[in-house]
Input
Amino acid sequence: YICFPMPDEGIYMTTTKDPFGKWSKPVNIRPGAGWIDPCPFWDDDGKAYLVAGVAKSRIGYKSVLHMVEMQPDGMGLIGEEVKIFDGNENDQVTIEGPKMYKRNGWYYIFAPAGGVKTGWQTVLRSKNPFGPYEYKVVMRQGDSPVNGPHQGAWVDTVTGQDWFLHFQDVYAGGRIVHLQPMHWENDWPIIGINKPGNDYGEPVMEYTKPDIGKSNSYPVCEPDTSDDFTSDKLGMQWQWNANYKKEWYDLENGQLILHAQAADPKTQLCDISNLLLQKWPAPEFSITTCLHLEEMKDGDVAGLVSLGGCYTALAVQKINGKMSLQQRTGNWTKDDEVRTGLGEWNSDVIYIQMKVEKETYRTFYVGTTEENLQPVGQMVEATPGRWVGVKDGLFAINEQGMEGGLVAADYFVYQEL
Output
């Protein structure tokens, strides 16, 4: 089952027997604007329920959770919607993102409150799905470096251990995931480690791995960041800026081929569809890429882009057969983009590097080899944007309304500083 909100249309449900196969056509089980963060729950007796939060921008108020009975097949709702908790009346402002569970006869709703940057994790409990619910704060930042620790899910292992996955807002970098130990005291969960005298937990930065009942000798692994483009498909770290089309790129002979797509020159770079991007992997790092430019056509623009609330890119533009360097910088909330000319470029190959320092400052370097890189353009501060954190990557567009050429990338290499 996937239950998802469309804030203006309602709550939808779709199902499948094979998550990698065909899903059913989504059904709007709760038409109307305002409900968000739905969580379906199936009880021991076969009854089903739906708990959800609200979006003030659509419904006029916030910090409220609602409960309603759901058809056992998940394809509709039954009966009246009930307001089960109002965070405005309980010092739990911005309570949202509910997750519902049952344990020892108690119904639990795990819900974050206080906002993403400075909030905490709250848990409600009741003997009845419709309440009344009592509540308790079960995790706070405390003395830890993890601000706003909340908004996640309780998971358990086959060996009886309890754990909690949650996120941390790290400004421009977006939201990173933490795993916390969890235990129970008096039928209340405590997430993280509770210090003497505290009835809530604080996040830990290092802890024994979960016991999953098998060998715990799994190798340490992490998502790929660098890419030498020798595979026959893009790595899982890559994301297009919009639903991609197969004609946007090819992988050939150890290179990524980007075909320049038509783009209106008035369109901000952050709104271009065929940006190939990936998330920041660390607080401080460099990216280095090598681009071959000999098959660019007039009107083509290609280079390295760093998105976010404030975005910037270092690019090569070809006009009347001549190539020049430029830096494009703008803010996605405003209809503006500054294009700064940085002089001619007289080589068919360009090495571009971008360094990120102190989780914020982005600086470009260019050269005809990786050994002679020189600083270029303006340093641009990274700011949050669209809840997803900054993404960096490559692009190729044509702004003259004609069929564009292509650029070929040899590699895209991350290195922590």
Remarks:
- The chain has one helix and 30 strands.
- The mean pLDDT is 95.
- The two ends are 42 Å apart (CA to CA).
- The longest helix spans residues 56-59.
